[in-house]
Each structure stands twice: as C-alpha cells, then as structure tokens.
Amino acid sequence: MTKIELANRWAWSRGKTLTRGFTAATVALALTGVFSPISDSLGQWTAISATAEEAPAKKQKTRRVPSLSEGVYKKLGEGQEAIDAKDLAGAEEIIKTALDRSRRYNENEIANLHNMLGYIYYLKEDYDGALREYTIVVSQGEKIPEGLETTTLYTVAQLSYVQENYDDALKYMEIWISKALNPSSAPRFFMATVYYQMKEYDKAINQMQLGIQIAEERGTTVKEQQWSLLTFLYFEKEDWPNVIETLKVLVEKFPKREHWVRLAGVYGQEGFEKEQMYSLEAAYTAGFLEKKTDFTNLAGLLMQEEVPYRAAKVLLAGFKAEAIEPDTTNLQALGQAWQLSQEVDNAIEAYEGAAKLSEDGKIYERLSYLYLEDDQFDRCVDSATGALDKGGLRKAQSVYIVKGMCQYNLDKLTAARDSFVQCRRVARREEDKANQRVCGQWITFIDRESARLKQLAAASG
Questions:
Q1: What angle do CA 201, 207, 29 make, to 5 degrees?
Q2: Are 268 and 279 a contacting pair, CB within 8 Å?
Q3: Class of residue 124 by CB neighbours under 10 A (exposed 0-12, middle 13-18, buried 19+)
Q4: d(CA 27, CA 378)
Q5: Among 301, 298, 305, residue whose Cα is nearest residue 284
Q6: Is 128 helix (H, G, I), strand (E, B) or coil?
Q7: Does the structure show a pLDDT above 60 at 421?
Q8: Confidence at 458, pLDDT banded by 50, 70, 90
Q9: With 90 as the cut, is the pLDDT of residue 456 above it?
Q10: Which of 437, 385, 433, 380 has its CA nearest to residue 409?
Q11: pLDDT digits over 121-172, tens only?
C-alpha cells in the first residue's frame, strides 16, 4: 500500500479538526465566564485563570502595583452589572467612556479597564477586538498583578491562534511558560498544535514529546487527540516505526476501529503482513470491523496465511453486517475459502449464488468440478451446460470433458459421446492436442462400452 493510498484510507482530512485542538469554539468554551473581573480581598482587580489546572505563577517578590482609584473601581463595578444583565452594549459604553480619561489612569487601572473591555468583546464573539484589548493588558508589564498578567498571556496566546497569528501565539505562550511555576503539559500540546499548523513538524514533535513527558511525570492523562496528533506528525515525516509505536498506544488506551485499521494499514505498508493480520483479527474479535475493506482485507490475509476456514467465517460476518455486498466477486471469494477448507457443501452454495450473478460461465465451470467430485452428477451436467451457455471460458473443451464424464456416470452414453465429440471439435480448432487425444479416447471407450452393452442385451434376449 502506497503512502497516498494509506492516507486516503486513514482519512486524515479529519485531522484538521482533530489536531487543531483550539478552535474558536474550543477557546470560547474555555473562556466562558472566566474573564469577568472580580474584586479580591485587597480591593485589586484580577481575573480567574482560563486554565485553572495550570501551575501558578512563579513565586517571586510580591509586585508593588499601583492601586485602583475609587472612580475606576466604580466604573468596573458598573460594567460588571451591565454584563450580568446581558447589556453588552451598555457595558461597552461604560468602559469606553471611562477609557476616554485614560491619561489620568495608572497602568493597573488601564489594564483592568481593557481587561473588562476584552471580556465584553469576547462575549460579543468579536475575537479581534478581544485580542486587541488583552494585548494592551499584558503590555502594562509589571505594573499589574501577576495573576492578571499570566492569565491574560495565556488568553492572548489562544486568541492569536484562533486568529491564525501563529507567531504571536507561540511568543505569548513562551512568555507564559517563563512566568509559570512547573507548567503542566497543556501549553506544550498547544504549542505543538501551533507548529503543526505552521507545518514545522519537527518542532511540533518536540513539543508533543515534552508534553507527554510532563504528563507522565505528573501521572496525568494524555488525551486521545494528543496521541493522534503525534501519530499524524510522524506520518507526515514518514517515520513509520514511530507511527506504529504511537498507534500501538492508541489501540491500547483508546481501542477503536480507526486506530486498529490504521495500525494494520501501516503494518501492511511496511511488509509486516502477519502483524497486519493480527491487528485486523483483534479488531474483528472486538467487533470493530465495519467497512467492506475491513472484512475483505482480513479474509485475504487469512487466505494468504492458509487459514481458509477462518477467512470464510470473516466473510460471512461481513455479509451478515451488510458491509459486504453479495455480488459475484465476494460470493466467489467465499466459495473459494469454503472449498479450500474442504467444506464442499458450503462452497457449492456460495458458488451457486455467484454463478447466477456472473456475466460469464467461469463460476459454473468451477461448480461443475465440485459437483463431479461430490458425485452430484445431475447438477454437474447442469452447471457445465450453464458454463458453456454463458461462455467466456478459458478452455471450453475442458468443460465438455467434465460434462461428458458426469453424463457417463448417469449412464447417458449417447449424450456423453456427444459432449466428447464437441470437446474434440473445439480442441482441434484450438490446436489443443492433449485434450483432443483425451476426448478421442473417451469416444473410443464409449463406443466399445455401447457395443458391449448391445451384445449383452442381445445375448440376454
């Protein structure tokens, strides 16, 4: 299987939504109700972190930041009341009016007003506006509380990503990491997603590996989405050993059809056909196989490994699940599996269904051989006749031989002789000396047998 075929099979088009991770909707969900300022016990305005699970800011010397004036505090309270009342237009007007007097404000007051305005824009789904306001907040540097700064840095990084400002997203996340104490794996996975969008796969892989290392050290869960992103990154670099390793993690931790089938596909591409078969068998046992190719690929591998009975069972399961259509090709494959399993009756049933749908007589020809072996001579004659009528045979003379043999076993010597005469005629035309000789020998044998029977009849009469 080529890389392109494998890519099509994996349907990596879904990877854009799978690996992007932080879509606008995702960020919106993360930020809901988060950036509304609240008053702390010191009367300073901060914001609740959108990433509460993240590590706190590094413990440094407590910042001395300018305090909020009573006027600014009052305006922020009025803005919050308007937000609570869902009067976003009113809230925006209150804060903008307050900002018109910004020359009189210190950095902390400016930051808190822009922080609330950013939140208002966020609620209005104006992400450009929200990003602009939050950027002003962090630009105030160490003149604002650490909690407000770190929270807003993380937000700016996320919103920059949503707006496809990838360089800014990385810059602000790096700043956030530098200010956080023992950050969790989340910012590393975020940065990996950004690098993925920039098609810088090596850097993305490095960030993913760092994130996984941090998560494992902390005993926290690495999500399916994150393992899938790492798998895709390895896939893009054609690093097949690592693709296999990450897929093995996925099938163990998140056993799903897509992961098992992808693992089987890579095994097959890399020539590990037994591992490919085992992967599909595991998926089959777990009930994950759904599509036609799932069942037919596994059946084909089982046939290749000379396990035809198991292959037949897999194909039957595919028919039962209505994943495989009972067409000529599939029924013939089932018949072949049963035939190699020495399950003659089952093989005959499958071939009969295939023969009726076939446009040529090849399957009827195979049926005639099976009927001959099973001593079902009447059906043998019917199948051979059907094969000859439909045509498209590689050697019609061979079918005439089978038909003649079955007729002979039914004691229909005249009909059998006619079949062998037809066989010899076709063999001559095809310059097939071997079958010409065989059919001639049968004609001579039948003639002698007919003469012997006549003599016996005359003698007994």
A1: 100
A2: no
A3: middle
A4: 74
A5: 298
A6: helix
A7: yes
A8: confident
A9: no
A10: 380
A11: 999 999 999 999 999 999 998 888 888 988 999 999 999 999 999 999 999 9
Domains of the chain as residue ranges with CATH: 1-20+184-285 (1.25.40.10), 32-163 (1.25.40.10), 289-354 (1.25.40), 358-461 (1.25.40.10)
The one-letter amino acid code at 268 reads: G
Classify residue 47 by burial, with Cβ atoms within 10 Å: 0-12, 13-18, 19+. buried
Segment 344-364 shows an average pLDDT of 92
Q: How far apart are CA 339 and CA 348, in angstroms?
A: 8
- Global confidence as pTM: 0.72
Residue 39 three-state SS = strand
Tell me how far apart the alpha carbons of residues 204 and 11 are, in angstroms, rounded to a whole number. 21
Angle between helices 257-269 and 3-10 (to 10 degrees): 180
Residue 348 has pLDDT above 90, yes or no: yes
CA distances from 136 to 17, 20, 351 (A): 30, 27, 76
Tell me the percentage of the chain whose pLDDT exceeds 90.
Answer: 73
Residue with tokens 């959108």: 50
**Token pair listed for 267:** 């095994």
Q: Is 238 left (phi over 0), alpha (psi -120 to 50) or beta?
A: left
DSSP state of 180: B
Q: Is the pLDDT of residue 21 over 50?
A: no
C-alpha–C-alpha distance, residues 250 and 272, integer Å: 19
**Paired tokens of 275:** 């591992």
- Is residue 357 predicted with pLDDT exceeding 50? yes
| Sign of the dihedral defined by the CA atoms of residues 418, 395, 372, 401, in that order | positive
- What is the identity of the amino acid at 321? A
364 vs 37, 385, 387, 399, CA distance in Å?
Answer: 81, 8, 5, 10
Q: Which residue has the tokens 């992007």?
A: 20
Tokens found for residue 417 = 């002789």
Whole-angstrom Cα distance, residue 385 to residue 374? 18
Angle between the N-to-C axes of helices 396-409 and 413-429, in degrees from 0 to 180, rounded to the nearest 10:
170
SS3 87: coil
Q: How many CB atoms lie within 10 A of CB 356?
A: 12
In sequence order, which ranges of 291-343 are alpha helices (DSSP H)? Answer: 292-304, 308-320, 328-340
Distances, alpha carbon 445 to alpha carbons 4, 35, 398, 425, in Å? 61, 101, 18, 17
